[in-house]
Write a structure and sequence with these properties.
Number of strands: 0
Shape: globular
Number of domains: 1
Number of helices: 7
CATH superfamily: MFS general substrate transporter like domains
Order of helices and strands: HHHHHHH
CATH topology: Growth Hormone, Chain: A
Helix content: over 70%
Largest sheet: none
Distance between the termini: 21 Å
Oligomer: single chain
CATH class: Mainly Alpha
Radius of gyration: 16 Å
Strand content: under 5%
Amino acid sequence: YDILNEYVTSHQVGGDMSVSSMMKLFGVIGMLLSLLAGRVSSRIGMKRLLTIALTTCIVSIILMGVTTNIILITTFSVLFVAGIAFAIPTVISKIGVVVKNNQGFFLSVNTFVLFLGTAIAPILMLFVGELSNFFLQFLMIAIVGLIAL
């Protein structure tokens, strides 16, 4: 959200802090979609849902960087959050299905990896923030997502 906030309030997009805050508020819609992850995964399968969710994240974050339209940026932001909101419960469900013994340990490993990502992300963003334009910044974040895919 730091890069998105800077992008929205930049001269390229022309938004202000209230616009940026409203965009983040719309992200809650994407989070609420996580409640549907179980039903969707039972219909299309966990692996397919995870692939779709991560692909949605990657594509939406790239598209955020190529448009200056506030409505489109907000839409892509909601799609990005929705992708994450589908991916996390799907991974947890996949662990529950694949691992027969010691599920608690593997869920703890999953939690550790999530927390490790939240610890590394600010450091990574220091380097990404130094890139010359916003599209490259969004692209670098998308590359991290591509590695996850």
